[in-house]
Write a structure and sequence with these properties.
The protein is of the alpha/beta class. Helix content is 43%, strand content 11%. The chain has a single domain, classed as Glycoside hydrolase/deacetylase (TIM Barrel, Alpha-Beta Barrel), CATH 3.20.20.
Length: 290
């Protein structure tokens, strides 16, 4: 039997950072007079997200959307559609500010503004937090603790969750390999990444899923509606879902569901430890899929 809910071998999170225009504003409103640049983000909110919602509905999957507060305020109808379809809404800053570039007071202000923006839509404070660019300052964890967050999804030191010491906060680890930005984020000008075909991301993600499944881990896929929401990439994401579902005993879940399950799992299995014990596939009778 696997370590996950109902004996599942692997947990899968489909997560979407709905930055919209904030990705291009990057913590400042100076680029508001550049509609061409901002249109990348507008596409993500107005076109990419509805395509993703349709895909999730067709596959009966609940996802987690990490949304900056400014995006919530500028695109409330899209955020309400996400809420009404039963997906989780979680915190992603206010204007896509990097905490490492803020004072403690500024970071606290950004955190509260994002919380309140989401609360106006959902009626409650968000339980999950993902920092823009996954950056943590020296103050981030303490601020998350003070504001009652249940989980963070920012660090890369495992492919199993863990509980941060002296807190109730569960870390749901991420990895650049499982992010669409390294494959698809293109900016005009020097130093930009080349755009890669969707097939390259498909190969990388399915290879990594196979490995994480083998070791009984958490497959936490980070995507951005303005990138993955292009028509051909949406079809590729459907292929990824089909591939994952070809393996037995997989649990699709939101961030809150994984965090709550893991907290209970560690209480019942203290030998897993704070950083998690690697599941031994050799000693398990669980079939490892194709």
């Amino acid at each position: 039997m696997g370590r996950w809910k109902d004996g599942a071998q692997c947990a899968v999170m489909l997560t979407f950072d709905l930055d919209a225009e904030t990705l291009w504003l990057a913590g400042s409103l100076e680029n508001l007079n550049k509609p061409g640049m901002l249109s990348h983000g507008t596409y993500g909110a107005r076109v990419g997200t509805p395509l993703i919602l349709q895909l999730l509905r067709q596959n009966d999957i609940k996802a987690t959307f990490f949304v900056p507060g400014w995006t919530v305020e500028q695109h409330p109808d899209i955020i309400e559609a996400i809420r009404d379809q039963g997906h989780e809404l979680a915190h992603h800053g206010y204007l896509h500010e990097r905490p490492t570039e803020l004072t403690r007071e500024q970071e606290a202000e950004v955190l509260v503004k994002g919380i309140e923006a989401l609360r106006r839509i959902t009626g409650e404070a968000p339980r999950g937090y993902r920092s823009p660019a996954w950056e943590f300052s020296a103050n981030t964890l303490q601020l998350l603790k003070e504001h009652g967050f249940r989980y963070s999804s920012n660090l890369m030191s495992h492919f199993l969750p863990w509980q941060h010491p002296d807190t109730e906060i569960i870390e749901l680890p991420v990895q650049w390999l499982l992010d669409d930005a390294p494959f698809f984020l293109f900016r005009s000008g020097p130093g930009s990444r080349p755009i890669q075909p969707a097939a390259v991301a498909y190969q990388a993600w399915t290879e990594e899923f196979r490995g994480i499944y083998h070791y009984g881990g958490l497959f936490n896929l980070t995507m951005h509606p303005q990138l993955i929401g292009r028509p051909g990439r949406v079809l590729m994401l459907q292929q990824v879902i089909d591939f994952i579902r070809s393996f037995p005993h997989v649990w699709f879940a939101t961030g809150s569901e994984v965090a709550e399950y893991w907290a209970q799992h560690v209480r019942e299995n203290p030998d897993e430890g704070r950083q998690g014990r690697i599941y031994d596939p050799v000693s398990s009778s669980r079939p490892l899929g194709r």
